[in-house]
Structure formats: C-alpha cells, structure tokens
Sequence to fold (185 residues):
Amino acid sequence: MLFCGINPGLYTAAIGHHFGRPGNRFWKVLHLAGFTPRELSPFEERELLRHGCGITNLVNHATARADELAPEDLARGGARLARTVRRWRPRAVAVLGLDAYRAAFGARRVAVGRQEGTLTGAAVWVLPNTSGLQASYQLGDLVRLFAALREATREDGRGRASAPRARRPRARRRDAARVGRRSIA
Fold:
C-alpha cells in the first residue's frame, strides 16, 4: 500500500517528516483503521514499511496550503507518482485529496473510494485529505474510509489480495519516499 499526499506543508517540510503538522489526522486514522498496531508519530514514518505501507507526495515542494499549487505542478506530480508506482509496485495506491487527484490525472468525475482502472498495475483509491484544514470529513468518517481500503487490499488466508500483488524492486529503499529533497526511507 502506497499512501500519496498532495505536498508537504511548511511545518512538515521544516521537520522533514510526512504529515508532520500536529493537526493532521493521518497517523491517528492509519492506526484506528488497522494499518498500524499503534499510533505512530511522523518521526516514526519508516515504521510504515514494517506494516507493508509506503508514503510519498504528488509534489515535493512545500506550500502553506495545497491550493497554492499550480495545475502543472500536480500534473507533473501525477507522472512522477506513476514512475514511483512502476518502480516499487505496490498493490494499491491511495491518493489523499480528490481535487489533487483530478488535477494530477486529468480525471473529471472522481468519487471517494476505489477508482476504475489501475496506475501501472496498482489499484487506485482516492481518499479525503487528512489535513486539519479539511473539515468536510470527521475522524470517524476518515477511519471508516481508510478501514474499507485496508479490508479491500488485505490478503486472504491463501496469500491473495483483492488488488494486484506487489513485487520487491531491486533498487535501494532510500528512494521509497521523500519530503522535499530530503530522503526519509
């Protein structure tokens, strides 16, 4: 599972860890949805790898708000995400932000949840942004949506998943996730 944020906010970029602003609900939602056995802090983001998850952004440069990004930034980010998915081959990708997904992939009609088709073989989900600035979705709503993603992409008892299976790349892990220009994985 690869989680894809929009871009780092100023605070997140300053500390160098994904979803780092204290008001962001990403780490709490991941735990409550069952992806992690406890709530991780942004400083423990590498622990996600132990739980079969990775993390990246569409755009690597920081802004105060995601709506400050140009459509071209998001379109380039969509192409970069496709290259990342091709390299690391996750079973599924969850893009956190409907408007960002629309801009990155030229999609007109996007609903929360599983999308038709794949991104270089990975199932694609679009989920709401977990930023504290996103007031449309309460914590319980986010947990329910993330738990549905977890359930849909978990393996059955015979090692099969509802989404395409990942293969390990030969490349080094340090390129798995980045914030700005700083490697974190």
Observations:
- The helical segments are 10-15, 26-32, 71-88, 98-105, 139-153.
- The chain has five helices and seven strands.
- The two ends are 15 Å apart (CA to CA).
